[in-house]
């Protein structure tokens, strides 16, 4: 029975999920596959490379470094989170990404992106690490308005959360029968219509299908929450979610707040660890 791990996005809320997954790694829990969306992919890659602690380490280290993120990067490169420095310098020079461990780990690592020309989800399995593969990772986490469209693999891509925020159904169709789903919103949350749609329509006017997907994202997301709730009730998945709203915005430069959020995730991870083991082993 194939074991899956699904990591929702949520920008800096992803550090909460990193706290959960670091605890899982420390307890030697290794699913067969991981499907990551946006921050769930950008931070989840450290699961396949077996590097607990890496996500919180480099985010706090570079929290106030203009080379990593900020308005200077947005104005000069078009990306709030600097594409070159964050995805092609940090992993090789400052906080080394264990490429060998990533490529040797049999865990299937799938990132979810959104094709801006169709508004549909694109699922890409990363089996190795090179420039283009890291661009797939970047594309998954490239938030509209805060990022340029990413060209890779013959596609034009942005944030995977726009088209498939919680890819449990995808994982089930791919053959994963025992799925742990890590959400970044508390029980009872419902997404509302994006108040930045007027700006989205202007910024992405060349991509009407993407604008439509963004306009309807709250409908898609809330339906996915219903799907997850049914699957949880039927025992088809184990859901781990925060007890309350995670106290951080999509963007943050506060290293102490990042550590707080990460440690909140660790606490929930420790609380769930025996449930996770039992669920995967049953």
Summarize the structure.
The protein has helices at 14-26, 39-48, 54-61, 71-77, 83-88, 90-94, 99-104, 131-140, 168-173, 197-203, 208-215, 217-233, 255-281; strands spanning 2-7, 33-37, 108-115, 121-126, 150-152, 155-159, 176-182, 237-240.
**Rounded average pLDDT:** 97
Helix content: 40-55%
Count of individual helical segments: 13
**Globular, elongated, flat, extended or rod-shaped: what is the shape?**
globular
Report the portion of residues in β strands: 15-25%
- Main β-sheet, in a few words? 8 strands, mixed
Rg, nearest Å: 17 Å
Structural class, from helix and strand content? alpha/beta
Terminal CA distance: 10 Å
Query: H/E series, N to C?
Result: EHEHHHHHHEEHEEHEHHHEH
How many strand elements?
Answer: 8
Low-confidence stretches: none
Task: Give a quick set of tags describing it.
282 residues, 8-stranded mixed sheet, 13 helices
Please provide a written account of the structure.
By secondary structure, this protein is an alpha/beta fold. It contains 13 helices and eight strands. It has helices at residues 14-26, 39-48, 54-61, 71-77, 83-88, 90-94, 99-104, 131-140, 168-173, 197-203, 208-215, 217-233, 255-281; strands at residues 2-7, 33-37, 108-115, 121-126, 150-152, 155-159, 176-182, 237-240. Strands 1, 2, 3, 4, 5, 6, 7 and 8 form an eight-stranded mixed β-sheet that branches. α1 crosses α13 (255-281) and α3 (54-61) runs antiparallel to α13 (255-281).
């Amino acid at each position: 029975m194939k074991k899956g791990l699904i990591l929702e996005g949520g920008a800096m809320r992803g550090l909460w999920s990193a706290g959960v997954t670091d605890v899982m790694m420390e307890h030697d829990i290794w699913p067969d596959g991981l499907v990551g969306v946006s921050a769930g992919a950008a931070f989840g890659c450290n699961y396949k490379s077996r590097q607990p602690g890496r996500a919180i380490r480099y985010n706090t280290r570079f929290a106030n470094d203009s080379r990593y993120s900020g308005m200077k990067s947005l104005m000069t490169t078009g990306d709030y989170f600097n594409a070159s420095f964050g995805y092609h310098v940090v992993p090789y020079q400052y906080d080394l990404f264990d490429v060998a461990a990533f490529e040797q780990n049999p865990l299937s690592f799938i990132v979810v992106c959104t094709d801006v020309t169709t508004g549909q989800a694109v699922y890409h399995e990363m089996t190795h690490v090179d420039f283009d593969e890291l661009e797939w990772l970047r594309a998954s986490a490239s938030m509209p308005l805060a990022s340029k469209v990413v060209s890779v693999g013959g596609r034009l891509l942005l944030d995977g959360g726009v088209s498939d925020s919680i890819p449990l159904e995808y994982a089930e169709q791919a053959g994963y029968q025992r799925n742990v789903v890590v959400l970044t919103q508390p029980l009872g949350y419902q997404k509302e219509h994006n108040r930045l749609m007027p700006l989205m329509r202007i910024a992405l006017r060349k991509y009407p299908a993407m604008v439509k997907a963004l306009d309807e994202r709250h409908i898609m997301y809330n339906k996915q929450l219903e799907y997850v709730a049914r699957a949880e009730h039927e025992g088809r998945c184990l859901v781990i979610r925060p007890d309350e709203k995670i106290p951080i915005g999509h963007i943050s430069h506060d290293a102490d707040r990042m550590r707080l959020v990460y440690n909140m995730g660790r606490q929930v991870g420790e609380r769930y660890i025996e449930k996770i083991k039992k669920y995967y082993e049953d």
